[in-house]
Write a structure and sequence with these properties.
The chain is of the alpha/beta class and 184 residues long. It folds into 2 domains: 1-108, NAD(P)-binding Rossmann-like Domain (Rossmann fold), CATH 3.40.50.720; 145-180. It is 45% helix and 16% strand. The chain contains 7 helices and 7 strands, in the order βαβαβαβαβββααα. The strands form 2 sheets. A 5-stranded parallel β-sheet has the order 3-2-1-4-5, sandwiched between helices. The protein has a two-stranded antiparallel sheet with strand order 6-7. The longest helix is centred in the last third of the chain and has 18 residues, at 145-162. The protein is elongated, with a radius of gyration of 20 Å. It starts with 12 loop residues before the first strand and ends with a helix. The model has no long low-confidence stretch (mean pLDDT 95).
């Protein structure tokens, strides 16, 4: 696995689904500041309520897919998910089908966010339960104060860089600020 962080403001993301898994994935996107294009040919009442007027009431076609960079598929039957995966890959879209390793080009990690600090745990699809357990440990190890500390460090970093400070000084300042906040 190659871990990366993707900027949702620079990518077109699609979500296709029907029910509880699609609702969960949409909430995950929203928490991370992403606004995927949402498709469903048979949304559950809950998914319809959460997606609202952003829902496109059909499955994506080849034209829709060609405009996307990433596609998550949740709650579709295996035949529909496999067919959509083939179409997406033909359009050079990378795909994740929830709980279907054979149709995944990438895996979605368990994520902890503390402001702009994003911590992720993944198992390459081997065990989502293990990734969730690791996420719980990360939540304990990195309390919410990390978000505020990062903002302070980012501001100080910008000032130090503007003043021509060497990287070693910038790094030392960051560590000192983390220590002052009792985070390390």
């Amino acid at each position: 696995m190659i871990p990366v962080m993707l900027d949702p403001a620079r990518l077109r993301i699609g979500l296709v689904g029907h029910g509880a898994l699609a609702v969960r994935r949409l909430a995950w996107f929203q928490a991370l500041g992403a606004t995927p294009e949402i498709f469903s040919d048979n949304p559950s009442p809950e998914f319809l309520a959460v997606a609202g007027d952003q829902l496109i009431p059909r499955l994506p076609d080849a034209g829709d897919l060609s405009a996307l960079d990433l596609l998550w598929i949740a709650d579709l039957g295996p035949w529909a998910a496999a067919e959509l995966t083939v179409l997406a890959r033909a359009a050079k879209v990378i795909v994740n089908v929830e709980d279907d390793l054979a149709n995944c080009d990438f895996h979605t990690p368990a994520v902890v966010t503390r402001g702009r600090l994003v911590l992720a745990a993944g198992t390459g699809g081997a065990s989502p339960a293990v990734a969730q357990a690791v996420r719980a440990k990360l939540e304990e190890a990195f309390p919410p104060g990390w978000g505020d500390a990062l903002e302070d460090i980012a501001s100080a970093r910008a000032r130090l860089r503007d003043s021509g400070a060497p990287m070693a000084e910038v790094a030392a300042d960051a560590r000192a600020r983390l220590a002052a906040a009792k985070l390390i």
